[in-house]
Amino acid sequence: MLHPSLPNLTILDHPLIQHKLTLLRDQTTSTRDFKLLVGEIAMLMAYEATKDLPTEPIQVDTPLERMTGRMVSDKKLTLVPILRAGLGMVDGVAQLLPTARVGHIGVSRDESSLEATRYYAKLPSDRSDRDYFVLDPMLATGGSGTAAVTTLKTAGARRIKFLCIVAAPEGVRRMLEGHPDVPVFAAALDRELNQQGFIVPGLGDAGDRLFGTR
Q1: Is 85 in contact with 206 (CB distance < 8 Å)?
Q2: What is the reported pTM?
Q3: How do 66-72 and 55-61 pair as beta strands?
Q4: pLDDT tens sequence across 25-48
């Protein structure tokens, strides 16, 4: 559902997404289970976020007769995880979009200023013809998200969606100000950011929990 005060935000409140998100938030969830849950939530989110993909009629022969079915049009889709936590969402989305290419954008955040700086980008060559799904479990300050989208637009991308699992109001508003044409899909909009720039109640540092680091 669209958020009433944030027109760029769609909350994906499917019961299975919410169930798995609650497990994801639990501090006792193991690294192994955290990885599995991130992938499962990403797959369910991709199902919702691709509802507007165009289809075209296709003739197929069933065991009984010929019929007209529908298939997704020949769309060029690209998944772009923001390093490093976004990597945890790639396999889940790719289960639904197995022919999608995968680009990568690396963004680092200064722990004092909380500002983001891009340090890496590798994208397909035919950039303007593609639909992009930017992946990052957390949309906190919005610095990394807006930097990644800016990188894509500078490279020629025109059609971009941003998928995150948990968002903070501050990050969604920053995306709205910087890129009002980019829809944001989230499993939850949490209360706020704390002084360290972490989403609360949140789920901790997604990268650390995915890769077992501290």
Answers
A1: yes
A2: 0.91
A3: antiparallel
A4: 999 999 999 999 999 999 999 999
